[in-house]
Design a protein that fits this description.
The protein is an alpha/beta fold. It contains nine helices and ten strands. Strand 9 and strand 10 form a beta hairpin.
Length: 246
């Protein structure tokens, strides 16, 4: 069974159709990179998975269980323990240290004891290379460090799948590599990941499958080697011609 399934998913904002009949399955342990031009619907698709946006048609399933349809608050809280999300902006709580940011979800949602939550948070901060910065506040950390704290915070809920929405786009170029390295490590460890990215090197080297979206629809998908070296669709060739030349 797929961890995440999209079955004919549709979404509108007013008269604009931003997702058009998206059908896609993500298997356990698979890393799927979603690429495409701005306005393709990539981020909206991710936001529908954890119900920051409600899809208008079709179905989204997590481990075979449909989501959406106006869930109660507790149902959404349960969903978000299964789906971790890392955003473009780091969205850390400025009044909490790095350790406090990572502890908050396990304490408040999973109801772990303080000792349990702290042990989990310290382990995850070590995993993303930030154990020495546990006591620092977001304002004392670089952008790359803040994003790594955000990844640790999402992992603290022990999700089934991790969503990354352009996780490096707000970073200075010299900081991008440290975040991509953590993401590559997660992929190597078997984490199921859906990654919206403009980092073509990551998509080629780390993803198991690349999906190109444009105008709310899937244009083409395939193994990175075949997609990048021999794209089948004219729109894919045009997109790659622009981004790989840039």
């Amino acid at each position: 069974m797929a961890v995440v399934s999209f079955e004919g998913v549709r979404k509108r904002f007013g008269t604009a159709e931003v997702l058009r009949d998206i059908t896609l399955e993500i298997e356990e342990g698979e890393v799927v990179a979603i690429i495409g031009p701005s306005g393709a619907g990539k981020s909206t698709l991710l936001r529908c998975v954890n119900q920051l946006e409600q899809h208008d048609g079709g179905r989204i399933l997590i481990d075979g269980e449909p989501i959406g349809g106006g869930q109660r608050v507790r149902d959404l809280a349960r969903l978000r323990t299964r789906v971790g999300m890392v955003f473009q902006s780091f969205n850390l709580w400025p009044h909490l240290s790095a350790l406090g940011n990572v502890m908050e979800g396990p304490r408040q949602v999973l109801k772990l004891s303080r000792a349990e939550a702290e042990a989990r948070a310290l382990s995850l901060l070590d995993r993303v290379g930030l154990s020495a910065h546990a006591a620092k506040y977001p304002a004392q950390l670089s952008g790359g460090q803040q994003q790594r704290v955000a990844i640790a915070r999402a992992l603290a809920m022990q999700p089934r799948v991790m969503l990354f929405d352009e996780a490096t786009s707000a970073l200075d170029p010299e900081l991008v590599g440290e975040v991509l390295s953590v993401m590559a490590q997660l992929a190597a460890e078997g984490m199921t990941m859906i990654v919206v990215t403009h980092e073509m090197g990551f998509a080629r080297e780390v993803a198991h499958r690349v999906v190109l979206m444009a105008e709310g629809a899937i244009v083409e998908q395939g193994h990175p080697a075949s997609f990048f070296d021999a794209p089948k669709e004219a729109r894919s060739r045009a997109f790659l011609g622009k981004v790989l030349k840039a």
